[in-house]
Specification:
Elements (H helix, E strand, L loop, with lengths): L12 E4 L6 E5 L4 E7 L8 H40 L8 E8 L10 E8 L3 H14 L3 E4 L7 E4 L9 E8 L5 H6 L8 E7 L1
């Protein structure tokens, strides 16, 4: 009959004490010794959790920096954009509803846009005609989508390359983009809205 194999014995080392789970006892390879020490407690996070925490923190810091850049950009650029829109004097029947600034930090001096939204009791065509007449009075010329109520673009030719570009979009109140209406109010009591933007 083959010789019976011995039961597997763990290698010598520190293991959880079978009599007290709060400490470790040394196993010499054949028996437990009198040597004990406090059980090691896991301090710190598992590596994957630590990596996730670092990434989440980095993303939060990045968004914080971008938000700060947007605020600096608005503080620096909004006054000049407001001055351009202030020059446009529209009849009292076109009531201002809201004004909002949208900046893009990656294109610091060209992309930021200030928009004023007006509500109008007139038709889209008549509202466009009234605003376009005022822009022409100020020396602006239409350069894109002229004669259309939807996003015509205007510049003052004598001002050089740094001339502000104005965008005029006239639309029915029911057609105002839902996202834009949520973030930038509209006046539901009037049939038409005109957005005049400067960039």
């Amino acid at each position: 009959m083959p010789e019976q194999q011995q039961a597997w014995e763990p290698l010598p080392g520190w293991y959880q004490d079978p009599a007290d789970g709060h400490q470790q006892r040394f196993w010499d390879g054949s028996q437990w010794t009198q040597q004990v020490r406090p059980a090691k407690t896991r301090t710190g996070m598992p590596r994957a959790l630590l990596i996730i925490a670092v990434l989440v923190t980095a993303v939060a810091v990045l968004f914080g920096v971008l938000e700060l850049l947007d605020r600096v950009q608005e503080r620096l650029l909004r006054p000049g954009l407001e001055k351009t829109l202030d020059e446009v004097v529209l009849p009292a029947e076109l009531r201002p509803v809201t004004e909002y600034f949208e900046g893009v930090w990656g294109c610091f001096d060209m992309c930021p846009t200030l928009t004023r939204r007006y509500s109008s009791p007139l038709s889209t065509e008549e509202t466009h005609r009234v605003v376009a007449a005022e822009l022409q009075r100020l020396g602006y010329q239409c350069i894109r989508q002229c004669g259309q109520a939807d996003e015509s673009a205007w510049v003052q030719p004598g001002k050089g390359q740094r001339s502000p570009e104005l965008f005029l979009q006239v639309s029915l109140t029911t057609d105002v983009d839902r996202y834009a209406a949520v973030h930038h109010p509209k006046d539901p009591s009037r049939p038409v809205h005109a957005d005049l933007s400067v960039q």
